[in-house]
Amino acid sequence: MTNVANHYERDELLASLLNALAESGLDVDDLHPEDLAPLDEFHIGGRRATQEMIELAGIGPADHVLDVGAGIGGPARTMAAETGCRVTGVDLARSYCEVANDLTARVGLEGQVRFRQADALALPFEPGAFDVVWTQHMTMNVADKDALFAELARVLRPGGRLVCYEVLAGDTGGELHYPVPWADSAAISHLDTVEGMRRRLADAGLRIEQWQDRTEAALAFFQRMAARQDGSSSPRLGLHLLVGPDMSERTRNLTRNLEAGGVTVVLVLASRD
């Protein structure tokens, strides 16, 4: 998993983000979760996609949610702010966890949300510790998916919900265009198939409640993004601050892969028996 962590680790990430926020006219000592949305919702669809996941999973104030692959914490903060739930976030990248905790304190949610560095294949929690387990665009970086889903199920209480918003391999079986947001090359890109993910959920004792193909919605999102940026300079706040100056190239390649059927996007709700 070291190569995966290296893909996401960034030197001086917090200072870079705070500087960009200040240059955008925001008071970094008086931030609100929505101020961070342009840079902390690192997935297709942005904040609206997070809100759709919250609605699908029925997350409420009594829930304790585990966000696996939490990044710098945007979805976790959105969940906590909008529902009153508690969230524990884990990520393989230590710098992401440090930034996530700092930003969470700056928006006043440190009492509900916390982050720690951890490997998704060896989660440091007791069995049945969470009401909801949440993943967004993280399974493609994990090669051993049988172990991953078994571990997600282990920390979920009986009757708890797993909600996943993931990029999977498409039907074409062709070569993908790289780099993409989650990988520079195929070496750390481990896309599951639709059939594979369904089987793994069942093998882990998780019953599929809803399975939504979100590929067309993903394409529409990228088309809107391209239309907004056509002929204009890059916004000061954006995912390029996390990914690097080649974020536009990575996004174009992901769009090409979606258009060619090389990848598909799904939103899944499952429950533990």
CATH architectural arrangement:
3-Layer(aba) Sandwich
Cα(first) to Cα(last) distance is: 30 Å
Order of helices and strands: HHHHEHEHEEHEHEHHHE
Which oligomeric form is depicted? single chain
- Mean pLDDT, to the nearest integer, reads 92
Helix and strand composition category: alpha/beta
| Approximate strand percentage | 15-25%
Helix content: 25-40%
Q: Give the full name of the CATH homologous superfamily.
A: Vaccinia Virus protein VP39
Please give the count of helices: 11
What is the tally of beta strands?
7
The total domain count is: 1
Q: Return the CATH topology.
A: Rossmann fold
The major beta sheet can be summarized as: 7 strands, mixed
Quick structural gist:
The protein has 273 residues and is of the alpha/beta class.
What this model shows, in words?
This protein has 11 helices and 7 strands. It has one domain: Rossmann fold. It has helices at residues 2-8, 13-23, 37-40, 46-57, 74-83, 94-106, 145-154, 194-203, 215-229, 240-243, 247-259; strands spanning 64-68, 86-91, 113-117, 130-136, 156-169, 206-213, 263-272. The chain has a 7-stranded mixed β-sheet with strand order 3-2-1-4-5-7-6, sandwiched between helices. Helix 7 (145-154) links the parallel strand 4 (130-136) and strand 5 (156-169). The two termini are 30 Å apart. It is globular, with a radius of gyration of 18 Å. The protein is 40% helix and 20% strand. With 273 residues, it is of the alpha/beta class. Helix 4 (46-57) packs across helix 5, helix 7 crosses helix 8 and helix 9 (215-229) crosses helix 11.
